[in-house]
Specification:
This protein is an alpha+beta fold. Strands 1, 2, 3, 4, 5, 6, 7, 8 and 9 form a nine-stranded mixed beta sheet that branches. Helix 1 packs across helix 2, helix 2 packs antiparallel against helix 5 and helix 3 packs across helix 5. It starts with 5 loop residues before the first strand and ends with a helix. About 0% of the residues have low confidence.
Amino acid sequence: MPYPGIQIGIEVELILTAKKLRLSGHNLTDFSNKLARFFNARATADFPRMYANMDKDAYPGVNIVTEWSVTGDGSLPKFPDREDKYALEIVSPIFFVMPGEQWRRVVQNLWTIVAAGYHIKVNQACGLHVHFSPPGHAQWQLQRLQSLCRSILFFESAFEAVYPIHRRDHRAIKELMSPDTRLYAWNFQNLENGPAMTVEWRRGPGVINADECLSWTELVISFVRAATEFGSYENLRTMRPNVESFKAFLTKCRDDLNEQHRMAPLFTNVTTTVTPVAMEPLSKQALEKLRSLESEKKKKKSLMVRKVEKAQELARGW
């Protein structure tokens, strides 16, 4: 079957400190609004705008699909306002991984402008998430989803070797694909909203520049494309679930849509697979906090889901 293309959305979690007093804020909302104004004053007309969206019920911008959004996240650390540093999440426009699309330039522009006005840091609580789905209002084909799941399980130990050590503390393989919550390596929960919705990869570490962001994003794109095209049982049975086969699998889709050289830094000194280790049982306090966080997230759709839904409406001509 012909390759249908893919659309993606990127979420980056950062800890920012303003380089100048005029860019600092009294609280997260004030800080985020100043960040958006700073960004928009420097982004040229051929790049997307940015808007702070702290109230996820009301989008303040012009087009939620094509603009950067700044928001908070309950899983990120909170700092005293006097420290003037804030943990926040920046959510990308919907990008189309298709011939002629310049989405990587848009990502690079984001990091260039933010770094001009802010010190960028991350800690182990910060992460990078990549959502992906068929383009427009196209639906997932069951065969492609099955191939994706099959490939995730087949190459799990090779994938594990690429992750930083602090991102390996996850659930056992039998719970790998989100049976009842979104807080897993591969989140399939959004498919409950319809067969055109996103699958989300959540294992990326915090990143501090465009190169790191694009390296992990390229890894996801290359894997998803290879998995949905070549992840049949017949193809996988001819491979071995080791690092070398994993690298070869990632390069199966060789065309203008991928910039596979960007993945090279992720495989530095990575030669052997790593067996996933089951996460230690959560303490009662940690479990209650997790349940509270999940409850809050379920009350409102994520910004990325809202962006995808709006993109689908536009594709249908509504």
